[in-house]
Write a structure and sequence with these properties.
single chain; 81 residues; alpha+beta; 3 helices
Length: 81
């Protein structure tokens, strides 16, 4: 599977307090968005799912997906930085 790299990565809060990790590509972002569905499937989350899906289907851009993922992380209270 091709990787669609984020530049720069998006740093998000892990499930454990005080622990963060870098999301470096669309594939990781899409996987994490599914995990976040239970904690915050708001409008930014929905936008990020659409943006990541578009990239994975050969449409949209990685930059659009990264920006949408960052906004979803902010909406969910998981964005660091």
């Amino acid at each position: 599977m091709p990787m669609h790299w984020f530049s720069p990565p998006v740093v998000v809060q892990a499930d454990r307090p005080g622990v963060g990790y870098s999301i470096t590509d669309v594939e990781q972002a899409a996987e994490l968005l599914l995990a976040w569905k239970a904690i915050g499937a708001g409008p930014k989350w929905q936008d990020a799912v659409r943006a990541c899906t578009a990239v994975l289907n050969g449409a949209g851009t990685v930059d659009e997906a990264r920006e949408a993922f960052e906004e979803a992380a902010r909406e969910c209270g998981r964005l660091i930085g």
